[in-house]
């Protein structure tokens, strides 16, 4: 979603801001802008609808400065347009502001305080900058005016703000609530960003911010104040990520690169979490908290929710721990009746998903223990949960999640093994998680090496279709839900992932001549049933593709999956479906890394 960058005290500010915005492009946006000043009275505001390349084209050679702010906007209030793009400026041209998030009560604020002010945009953000200017005109200092406005914003709101006062041109005023924001520590300058990736060229040392704090950022000082005005001393943390990891290299698209990286993600998780002697390197306190609970509640959204469906199978089948999986946005407003001692697991690639965070806040208020499994160190869900386990998958840039999904499943398997050992469950000895994940890595490699075959299947089956179905039962039902989401989000083919036994109860009416139906069969118990269901749709004209485990395959099945324990079949079965989605999108002429209307990190509810 929206991205924020800022810098103070660097003569290269324009390039730092533009480069930072380019690094955030993957998150999804529809307009962008920068504001810079040179401390000598010259300042520049450049905004453009469309891509950063369009913004760059508007930035003329004389635009220069050492302090500035920049933004990529994903429209919420008001259409994508130059007027609605950030930075927003007060009518007196003194204050400039960029904002991520949503101000719930902006209409009331406008009506109460800004009757006499003409607004030029439709955004909630402009109301905030005009309010700061109004309170400053009434005699408050910039910090006081900013704090006063923060106090007027209601509970439902989320924000990351970066405010600049032209009369104090090298100072940035920073505040956040529910939206991610980091301070980057430079040498003689400082930066701000909503995602560390945006500033890795400038620094690897970042300071996290806590909701409600405000920061006064100057070229050589960072002052963090808590809501009571007390100065907070917080040390930076180091981000190891090599900026090159966030580049496409020779790949045409990030999604393909990230699909290909999955065998490496498996091997890296083994290295990080499993010692030579097979013991698991997971904090004993976390295992104790899980062992003390009577039920696991997995809460997540989208692809991460689908990884949770597989996690349920792992926790229940391997170590007999009752596990429920919930869609975060539903749980938040309609929680189930909880067990006496619940333990919560939040799965989130980004660690910033607002829907999941909403639930975590409730969980924390109730005092329940929680774990976040995420790819992003120091992300909000990671900071706010009791425990964190990281995926170490390297940055996932394509909007459609691939390696984070398989990484989450692999880490759930490692966790289930560790908990089984901790609880001394006899049968867990038979589950050699390192050996299974090694098999998964090798199997994934075999599948990604078969790209040409899958590209051809996509061209034959999916290039011109309007709709498609994935079908499967039990574990395969969990897998087809993710496979269907992947296809629909990047190719715009209307796709459903169905429990194949449910087809006859209504959905089979949609099957016509040539409707693509992909049957995933990795579960021995239900293999014949799914085959029968596939035959039923074939008899009604469907074009059926079988993706089947080697031990269950017949000679005519088109894609045969390498050997792996059935509980981890998702790790290999998902790979051809990711590639089908990728090729279908490319063949239909879309930008597979940036599907329409979607954002990488969904920081609004
Ligand atoms: C789809 C996808 C989304 C995310 C969902 C939750 O490819 O990536 O469905 O899984 O928006 O995001 P995270 O995992 O960051 O919490």
Bound compounds, each kind once, are: fructose -6-phosphate
What would you call the structural class? alpha/beta
Main beta sheet strand tally, sense and closure: 8 strands, antiparallel
Q: Identify the CATH homologous superfamily of the largest domain.
A: Aminohydrolase, N-terminal nucleophile (Ntn) domain
**C-alpha geometry:** globular
Structure overview:
The structure is a single chain. 36% of the residues lie in helices and 22% in strands. By secondary structure, the protein is α/β, with parallel strands linked by helices. The protein has three domains: 3-240, 4-Layer Sandwich (Glutamine Phosphoribosylpyrophosphate, subunit 1, domain 1), CATH 3.60.20; 253-443, Rossmann fold (3-Layer(aba) Sandwich), CATH 3.40.50.10490; 450-599, Rossmann fold (3-Layer(aba) Sandwich), CATH 3.40.50.10490. The protein has an eight-stranded antiparallel sheet with strand order 3-2-4-1-10-9-11-15, with helices on one face. Strands 5-6-7-8-12-13-14 form a seven-stranded antiparallel sheet, covered by helices on one side. It is globular, with a radius of gyration of 25 Å. The mean pLDDT is 94. It binds fructose -6-phosphate.
Helix and strand layout, with pairings?
Blueprint: E1 3-8, H1 13-24, E2 31-37, E3 43-49, H2 52-58, E4 67-73, E5 88-89, E6 95-102, H3 106-113, H4 124-137, H5 142-152, E7 158-165, E8 172-177, E9 182-185, E10 190-193, E11 205-208, E12 214-218, E13 221-225, E14 231-232, E15 237-238, H6 254-260, H7 262-273, H8 284-291, E16 295-300, H9 302-319, E17 323-327, H10 328-331, E18 342-348, H11 354-366, E19 370-374, H12 380-384, E20 387-390, H13 403-422, H14 433-448, H15 451-461, E21 467-472, H16 475-491, E22 494-499, E23 516-521, H17 527-539, E24 543-549, E25 559-561, H18 569-587
Helix pairs in contact: 3-4, 4-5, 7-13, 7-14, 9-13, 9-16, 14-18, 15-18, 16-18
The protein binds fructose -6-phosphate.
């Amino acid at each position: 979603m929206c991205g924020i960058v800022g810098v103070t005290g660097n003569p290269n500010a324009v390039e730092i801001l533009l480069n930072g915005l380019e690094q955030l492009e993957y998150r999804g946006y529809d307009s962008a802008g920068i504001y810079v000043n040179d401390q000598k009275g010259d300042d520049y505001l450049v905004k453009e609808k469309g891509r950063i390349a369009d913004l760059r084209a508007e930035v003329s050679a004389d635009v220069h400065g050492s302090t500035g702010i920049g933004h990529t906007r994903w429209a919420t209030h008001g259409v994508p347009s130059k007027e609605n793009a950030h930075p927003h400026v007060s009518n007196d041209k003194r204050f400039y502001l960029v904002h991520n998030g949503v101000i719930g009560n902006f209409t009331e604020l406008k009506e109460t305080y800004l009757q006499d002010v003409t607004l030029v945009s439709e955004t909630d953000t402009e109301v905030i900058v005009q309010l700061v200017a109004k309170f400053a005109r009434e005699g408050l200092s910039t910090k006081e005016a900013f704090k006063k406005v923060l106090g007027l914003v209601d509970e439902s709101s989320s924000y990351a703000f970066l405010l600049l006062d032209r009369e104090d041109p090298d100072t940035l005023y920073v505040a956040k609530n529910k939206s991610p924001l980091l301070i980057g520590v430079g040498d003689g300058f400082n930066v701000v960003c909503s995602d560390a990736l945006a500033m890795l060229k400038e620094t690897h040392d970042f300071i996290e911010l806590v909701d409600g704090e405000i920061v006064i950022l100057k070229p050589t000082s960072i002052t963090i104040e808590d809501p009571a005005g007390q100065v907070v001393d917080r040390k930076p943390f180091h981000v190891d990520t090599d900026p090159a990891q966030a580049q496409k290299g020779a790949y045409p698209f990030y999604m393909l690169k990230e699909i290909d990286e999955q065998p490496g993600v498996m091997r890296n998780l083994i290295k990080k979490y499993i010692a030579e002697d097979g013991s698991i390197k997971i904090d004993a306190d976390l295992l104790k908290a899980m062992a003390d609970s009577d039920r696991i509640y997995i809460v997540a959204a989208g692809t991460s929710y689908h990884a949770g469906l597989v996690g349920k199978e792992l926790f229940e089948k391997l170590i007999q721990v009752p596990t429920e999986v919930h869609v975060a946005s539903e749980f938040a407003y309609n929680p189930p009746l909880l067990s006496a001692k619940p333990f919560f697991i939040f799965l989130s690639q980004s660690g910033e998903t607002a829907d999941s965070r909403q639930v975590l806040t409730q969980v924390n208020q109730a005092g329940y223990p929680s774990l976040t499994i995420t790819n992003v160190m120091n992300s909000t869900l990671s900071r706010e949960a009791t425990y964190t386990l990281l995926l170490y998958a390297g940055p996932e840039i394509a909007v459609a999640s691939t390696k984070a999904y398989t990484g989450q499943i692999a880490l759930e398997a490692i966790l289930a093994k560790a908990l089984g050992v901790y609880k001394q469950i006899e049968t867990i000895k038979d589950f050699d998680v390192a050996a299974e994940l090694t098999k998964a890595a090798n199997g994934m490699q075999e599948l990604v090496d078969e790209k040409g075959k899958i590209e051809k299947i996509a061209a034959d089956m999916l290039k011109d279709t309007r709709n498609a179905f994935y079908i499967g039962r039990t574990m395969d039902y969990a897998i087809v839900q993710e496979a269907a989401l992947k296809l629909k989000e990047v190719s715009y083919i209307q796709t459903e992932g169905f429990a194949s036994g449910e087809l006859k109860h209504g959905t089979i009416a949609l099957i016509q001549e040539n409707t693509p139906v992909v049957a995933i069969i990795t579960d021995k118990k239900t293999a014949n049933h799914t085959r029968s269901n596939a035959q039923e749709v074939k008899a009604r004209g469907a074009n059926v593709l079988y993706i089947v485990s080697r031990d269950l395959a017949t000679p005519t099945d088109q894609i045969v999956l390498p050997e792996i324990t059935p509980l981890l079949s998702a790790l290999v079965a998902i790979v051809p479906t990711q590639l089908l989605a990728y090729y279908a999108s490319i063949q239909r002429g879309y930008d597979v890394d940036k599907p329409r209307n979607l954002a990488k990190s969904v920081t609004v509810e």
